[in-house]
Amino acid sequence: MRILVTGGTGYIGSHTCVELLNHGHDVIIVDNLANSKAEIVDRIEAITGQRPLFYRADATDAQAMDLIFSTHKPDGVIHFAGLKAVGESVAVPLAYYRNNLLSTIVVVESCLKHGVNRFVFSSSATVYGDQQVPFFETMELRARTNPYGETKAMCERILSDVAAVNPEFSVTLLRYFNPVGAHKSGLIGEAPEGIPNNLMPYITQVAKGILKELKVFGNDYPTVDGTGVRDYIHVVDLAEGHVVALEKASSGVHIYNLGTGRGTSVLELVKAFEEANNLRIPYSVTERRPGDIAECYADVSKAKNQLGWVAKRNVVEMCQDAWRFEQSYQVQDKRQD
Ligand code: NAD
Ligand code: UFG
Question: What burial letters (b/e) apply to 168-202, b meaning 16+ CB within 10 Å?
Fold first, then answer.
């Protein structure tokens, strides 16, 4: 198939482009480079031996999208493009609602206009809010903790309403848990600007000596050791999940959790990272981060039963691959300069 990937030079998008190309699909990337670099296209080519087409364009730009759709007539779309920083979304809510809602509306309008019936959307476990773990796809949407999460819940509703009146249209809502790690080559991975918000990139920067110590946000949660528990999933497993979801797409709305089904606490992840890479990660415990929940992990039986997809890579591999990328990224990009 010919697949249009919005946000394809981003963290999850780039790994998915690699897997799509490895599975024999053609890839057209649309990214405005708001949070990624054009050189990622070279790296995707270096890994796969195939160069995806790349357009630097904004997915909220209806004219640009119309032109790209009419030129390439894709068979399917994976819509990764979006802003994703929870704290920033509280500070600038309109930027988040504008970008995340409008890009989804514009891309779906292009799909309908050009007869593209496969649409895969990047949703998030954040839509479950604070409910009893594990999270099942049938649970109600409870994202009302920050504008970012709200955009994901709103897009899910918009897409479901569109599918209801377009019987040919296939919408797959993939709810990611906590993607970490990087491609084995060390060429692509997660490269946040400034001080990372998320745990794994923070740990890798402490390991590298860029940051002094990890701050553990609270050790008084009702969890195994008092620290927050999450379902970390290797980004390559996540990417493979997209290929399967796209290939198995059928009309209607299909929702899948993409996680491992296993919870890991902050301190367990620190320990795993230390053991996997033979390093020490200094840390201190500080107060809880506002808006955080104690535990978040998936029930993954639906993706297993209906898609035949399960996450294969364990926490050790996630830690090794994240660290490999952090080391090679510093050398190649001189981020510290
Ligand atoms: P990312 O920031 O690395 O990638 C997103 C890409 O979209 C970036 O390359 C950015 O430049 C691009 N982009 C943003 N707005 C755009 C626009 N209007 N037009 C064109 N390109 C645009 O983020 P990621 O971690 O790869 O996340 C991809 C998707 O998955 C996002 O929708 C995100 O909300 C969702 N998601 C991410 C996580 C996570 O923890 N990383 C968890 C759940 C869901
Ligand atoms: N944590 C720390 N110190 C840090 C960073 C994080 O202790 O410096 C803790 C958090 O309190 C939490 C765990 O590590 O217990 C994971 O935190 P992350 O920020 O890495 O991930 P979150 O689960 O908070 O959020 C992520 C994405 C959201 C997404 C959500 C569910 O950032 O966008 O996963 O998919 F919605």
Answer: ebbbbbbbbbbbbbbbeebbbbbbeeeebebbbbb
